[in-house]
Known about the structure:
Two copies of one chain form a homodimer.
Chain A lengths: L4 H15 L8 H8 L3 H7 L1 H4 L4 E4 L5 E4 L8 H9 L24 H16 L3 H4 L4
Antiparallel strand pairs in A: 1-2
The structure holds a DNA duplex.
Amino acid sequence: MMISTRGRYALRVMIDLAENYDGKYIPMKDVALRQDISLKYLERILPALTKNGLIVGVHGKGGGYKLVRHPDEYTVGEILRLTEGNLSPVACLAHDADICDKAKECRTLNMWQGFQKIANEYFDGITIADLMKKE
Amino acid sequence: MMISTRGRYALRVMIDLAENYDGKYIPMKDVALRQDISLKYLERILPALTKNGLIVGVHGKGGGYKLVRHPDEYTVGEILRLTEGNLSPVACLAHDADICDKAKECRTLNMWQGFQKIANEYFDGITIADLMKKE
DNA sequence: ATATTAAACTACTTTATAAGTATGTAAATG
DNA sequence: CATTTACATACTTATAAAGTAGTTTAATAT
């Protein structure tokens, strides 16, 4: 599978934060409950988003998380790349893959790269705002 | 990862059979050697291709495998779908996935389906002939 | 016929990754 | 200072990918 629960859950969190935004910080406990996802698991995924400045978290009472941009300024592509590594269809193109010594003679490398390009373009063309529930 | 070694190896076998075609049957032992892939593992992957009539295998001396169509009549999409199941980016769309009870309210289902469509179209637009070494 | 070659089948093992849990620490507020 | 919530780390479990081993069946050449 190309997109695991990690990336899917991250997206759901972002959408949830967007849809339930009311100016205040939203505790992840609430999101976990609404989305029916383990709080602890979410807490392991969120650092990828906070460290890269997509959301801010504040500690303590009244704390929680909040988006820092308008929902239409987050692309799905950026969220998935941060949580899933890159959007590679094959191991050869993964972010941490060692350069294949057969790359020169590889018949399919080009095809995989072309696909990766398409995947990035597709997901970069969709924003969180696009995914929010319409009234 | 969306495409595992299963699908990648199947593609390499098909390309190898196409490039080394000389009218005779080609033993998988030779392909395994050329491609540096375990013979035993290849033998586990091939049934997906023989059972669906993409290649024929004959037993015994002088036996081996052979393509039944011209290389430009095999799409990469068809080979990957047979070996990998369907080309689903997420578990929800996998061939054997049980219908999600949250599908109605899912904000992202549409997006995944759209991506799956694009993936299929991309790989259906490439044939084995396109991947063969050019003289 | 029979030895040889190679596909086809079945069951098993190993390895890797995904997914989730548990426990504890740090920061903020009432 | 008690409570709440983010943040950090280590651990466990589940699932799937990847690969092996052994056996059987079918074809050919001698």
